[in-house]
Specification:
GO molecular function, one term: oxidoreductase activity
Pfam family, one: Redoxin
CATH superfamily of the largest domain: Glutaredoxin
InterPro entries: Redoxin, Thioredoxin-like_sf, Thioredoxin_CS, Thioredoxin_domain, Thioredoxin_ResA/DsbE_sf
Distance between the termini: 59 Å
Strand order of the largest sheet: 1-8-7-4-5-6
Radius of gyration: 18 Å
Strand content: 15-25%
Helix content: 40-55%
Number of strands: 8
GO cellular component, one term: cell envelope
Number of domains: 2
Keywords: Cytochrome c-type biogenesis, Membrane, Redox-active center, Transmembrane, Transmembrane helix
Number of helices: 5
CATH topology of the largest domain: Glutaredoxin
Shape: globular
CATH architecture of the largest domain: 3-Layer(aba) Sandwich
Length: about 170
Amino acid sequence: MNKALIGKIVNGLLVVAVLWVLINRLPGVIENFRKQNQPAPSFAVPLLDGTLFESEETGKALVVVFWATWCGPCEVELSRLQKLIDDKVIPADSVLAVSSLEDRHLVQKTVDQRRYSFLVGVDISGQVAGLYGVRATPTTALLDKNHQLTWITTGLSPLLEVKIRGLFK
């Protein structure tokens, strides 16, 4: 085969791959868009420190991230949030990372190793993730002080910091 034909085949495969990703992600993107500017689902989740976090009791803006200990993109997003906390852009108690369907001890070990200072909830049953329609991790939801869902996204988001800064200004 000549190089021109190989190049066309590779380009064709790349186009197919990109289209496949877009087609598979599009329903989730549309669903997330429809949830925005609606009342956020209320929930209660046990925190690693043993207390119960109740979402409607906060009375302030909140970043909720659904994550997993094994998820590489989650580690990236949570590290970005930790940096915003470290830089005093947002308070640590305004971030809630919810791990679903994972062992509490594994979650605690991961949080300790990565030195996260934000709130961490353990949704053992997956019920809280279900309320938000989480299909993949990380899924990040921003709730304003009135408990309205202002933005929700799945995966790594280039808009994360901009959206958070806007919520907390």
